[in-house]
Amino acid sequence: MNLSRRLFPSPAFPAVPVEGEAAAYPVHRIFCVGRNYADHAKEMGVEVDREAPFYFLKSPLSAVASGLTLPYPPGTANYHYEMELVVAIGRPAFRVSTADAPSVVYGYAAGLDMTRRDLQLEARAKGRPWDLGKDFEQAAVVATIRKAEDFGPVGPQRIRLEVDGQVRQDARLADLVWSVPEIIAHLSGFYHLVPGDLIFTGTPAGVGPVVAGNVVRGEIDGLEPVSLTIGAAQ
Ligand code: MN
Q1: pLDDT tens figures, 188-202
Q2: CA 37, CA 35: separation in Å to the nearest integer?
């Protein structure tokens, strides 16, 4: 059988715009770090630990552009925003050190890790995977990538989110429990990271629900804001 002949077309992987580039950044995988701000871990009823970071994944096909109106997703009554710094990998990386990790970063973007919180917490309580809560259609909103050299060192930048103009999340990237180099060094011990891999680095305290009609806007100093309008349920 000729595997290049397909019964129906393979889906096109999403791509993310890049500041100053005519070409977009094609998404290959989406890794997400759990509980990476101490105040958010506390509000979720758990203590953050420094044993090791942990991850969940979203399908790359769930990546979606900023600025859209997206329907309230099915199967949830507690749909949450999570404002996050997104790291875009730009070079192959396997077992890189924290010292070498910055050299594999292509750039950064503001992102929303949209979450069906009720399904995530139900799964967590039962010791089950989080997929239903985290990995669903259009659940990874990513704004324009800014190249790392234009963004500068991660640290003092503020990370904020507003719903209908009301501030809900307000922290600094320096509050990350696991820094970007630490995350890349750790994750690259388990995966051969390649260009196209995005890493959502976790959300600060202040997560909460949204409903149809809400406008979510997230900002990180030095990056294009990410926004999302919640549409009616499908
Ligand atoms: Mn998250």
Answers
A1: 999 999 999 999 999
A2: 6
> Which tens digits make up the pLDDT trace of 46-71?
888 778 999 999 999 999 999 999 99
Distance from residue 54's CA to the centre of ligand 1 (Å)? 11
Domain boundaries along the sequence of the chain: 15-233
Please choose, from the candidates 11, 57, 3, the residue with its C-alpha nearest in 3D space to the C-alpha of residue 197. Answer: 57
Compute the distance from residue 176 Cα to the ligand 1 centre, in Å: 12
0.90 surpassed by pTM: yes
Name the CATH superfamily for 15-233.
Answer: Fumarylacetoacetase-like, C-terminal domain (3.90.850.10)
35 Cα to the center of ligand 1, angstroms: 7
